[in-house]
Amino acid sequence: xxxxxxxxxxxxxxxxxxxxxxxxxxxxxxxxxxxxxxxxxxxxxxxxxxxxxxxxxxxxxxxxxxxxxxxxxxxx
Length: 76
What we know:
single chain; mainly alpha; SASP_thioredoxin-like; Small, acid-soluble spore protein Tlp; sporulation
């Protein structure tokens, strides 16, 4: 087999990460809306999942900063 290496295209990583943040925030909001209808165990699970989502958002923000810095350093 003949494999070709695909070049690393980072040109739209910041935009993709920003979309991921927006989607995650929407998921948090939707989950919060379901809390009033959830039982005790379900409420705990939703809160824990939203906490993990918040942590993911922070990671995405850090990645955005890394990508912006990479762009400034000549990676596109």
